Amino acid sequence: MKHFAALIIILLIGCKPAVEAPAPTAGKPRVAVVNYPLAFFVERIAGDLVEMHFPAMDGDPAFWKPSAAEVRAFQSADLILLNGASYAKWTAWASLADSKTVNTSAAFRDAFIAVKAEAAHQHGKGGEHSHAGTAFTTWLDFNQAQQQAASVHRALARLLPAHSEMLANNFAALQRDLVSLDADLRGIAADLGDTPLLGSHPVYQYLARGYGLNIRSVHWEPDAMPDAAGWAELTALRKTHPAKVMLWEAAPNETIVAKLKARGIRSVMFAPCANRPGSTDWLAMMRANVAALRLAAGID
Amino acid sequence: MNSLWLAWLYLRQRRVAAGIMVAGVALSLYLPLAAHWAADAFDKALGARAAATPMIVGARGSRFDLVLHGLYFRARSEGTVAYSEFAALRDAGHGRVIPLHVRFTAGGQPVVGTSLDYFEFRKLQIARGESMALLGDCVLGANAAHNLNLGPGGNLKTDRKNLFDLAGDYPLQLNVTGVLAATGTADDEGVFVDVKTAWVIAGLGHGHDESNATNSPSAKLVKTHLEITPENMSTFHFHGDTTALPLTAIFVEPTDAKETAMVLGRYQNNGQLQALKPPVVVDEMMGMVMRVRQFLDANYALVAGATGLLLALIVALSRRLRAREMETLFLLGCSRGTQFALQTAELLIIFTAAIVLALAAAWATVGWARDYLNTLAG
């Protein structure tokens, strides 16, 4: 009888599920983003309702190369927001759960700009990279930025259904800011017309297309004096594209500014702000970009 | 009680004869019991896995093949599904969508290309190490880790599909990052990788080794396998239309009945793809197994009848052999009723022992064969 009872107990133990269901995560939902514009959208829409994960990245987040541990930090998030348009190259060789991942530029993926193959180059210690493939600074067209913000809002609304009203209000306020930026830039673009402009780096494709700006780019870095070939390239380019304004991703070296000024080219900072700036935020940076462009164009 | 005691003493004196009787009866009970329980265990295992898999999408062809491919990673040669189909299903918001690419093996274990969602979908837990993070990482099922004698930090190479195809797929070295807790299912046998890693194994994606960029002799030019390292990882890429990259199946977990109907409707008139409900297909499959079991049951009933008749004959012959013994007992004052009680007690002890033995043997057999049964469909 004892053996029979033991048999029943063993059978009952055997019927227990082999693995326990994962415990629900406590506290605020964790949202991971691949660049600062998305981080800013999340901060504006969800505020303190979520815990943000946007790790410090040396250089352009588009070319960040995370370690396995850094990828796992992304994996542990409840929501992973991607920029899309081949931004954050590392996502192509990392394992991320599809169910948690949202491509914020999916709505306009058919309008991505293809970039021709080009030589790889290097920014400081960040390692070599190439811009060939798809142009990825999608948010510099503020109409596209609105669509990305809408995608972020939808994802956050799914994550935080109990706070839908607050999220909607915050999103509406953000949309107003983006619409205002868009309108300001359209006004400047109308005044600029077909005026040729230079880009110090090939990151202004969506800005140019979105606002009809006539921008052509070289491959210069703000902190590195271009070599003779670089200046020769500029001279050749200006023969067909007589620009008097060059847009920079970051404040350029004073000697470069002076040398450009000597050639009749004014340096204007129009920062994509892909990484978190020190003391300001994305919207303030974009307003500063627009103001700088207005000033450079000589518009009151 | 005295009768039982006397019967027990009698049987102890004739251990061999009693043992043969118990073994004979036990054997005739064991076979149908073990077969029934094994079929039930198989039915439950298959049914439970199918029930946990609401829907599978794959190339048209054998329905059984597609379902067994999804549930048990059984190799399937019939067609593929383009990754764009997975993306379309995911973006349509029908529910959770999980890619599956099972074409290769590593150390004889199936290499399952999927996403991290698969682990949540099957409620798989990491017992040792961590989840896969980068291209080339893999997580081993419990049995796969045991069979390959590997754990976190180890590595293994994928098997070549064709040894004579010199220009074909090179084995890829996989880095083991974790081992799953045992589940008693086909997941214990898998070598889980990201679907992008599976495409690299298939030769659809590749990296570039800068040290091989010149014509100078290099040991690396004579490679026996591919390796994805932190140094070359960023050079890995896929050529051509990435949305056309192949999957062998797609799991769909619709959020509700409406979404289920939407997915089924999406493939109803599709000439290349089909959407199946694994529980329905498995029920159909088990219906066939049950028909075979009915035939076996009839066979067992005949065997049991024959065994019963044989036992009756043995008892009758035994009574004749023991006629003088019974007469002596009668002369000593033992009534005919007590003699009958003694013989009944002997049979009771034999049958009880045989039933216990048959139950124990059947239980042990099914327990021992449970893992084997779980892999039968694979």
Question: Could you write a compact summary of the structure shown?
Answer:
Chain A is an alpha/beta fold and 300 residues long. Chain A has 9 helices and 12 strands.
Question: What is this structure's SSE topology?
Answer:
The complex is a heterodimer of chains A (300) and B (378).
Chain A lengths: L1 H13 L15 E4 L2 H11 L4 E3 L14 H8 L3 E4 L18 E3 L10 E2 L5 E2 L5 E2 L3 E2 L7 H18 L4 H29 L3 E4 L5 H7 L2 E4 L10 H13 L4 E4 L5 H9 L3 E4 L12 H15 L4
Parallel strand pairs in A: 1-2, 1-3, 3-4, 9-10, 9-11, 11-12
Antiparallel strand pairs in A: 5-8, 6-7
Helix pairs in contact in A: 2-4, 2-5, 4-5, 5-9
Chain B lengths: L1 H12 L1 H37 L3 E5 L3 H10 L8 E2 H10 L2 E12 L2 E6 L2 H5 L4 E4 L7 E4 L1 H7 L6 E3 L14 E9 L10 E4 H7 L3 E2 L19 E2 L9 E2 L7 E2 L1 E6 L2 H12 L4 E4 L1 H44 L1 H9 L4 H40 L3
Parallel strand pairs in B: 4-9, 6-8, 8-11
Antiparallel strand pairs in B: 1-14, 1-15, 2-13, 3-4, 3-14, 5-8, 6-9, 7-8, 10-12
Unreliable segments of chain B (pLDDT under 50, ≥5 consecutive)?
none
Structural class of chain A, by secondary structure, is alpha/beta
Helicity range of chain A: 40-55%
Helix percent band of chain B: 40-55%
The largest sheet of chain A has its strands arranged as: 2-1-3-4
- Low-confidence residue ranges of chain A: 1-25
Number of DSSP-assigned strands of chain A? 12
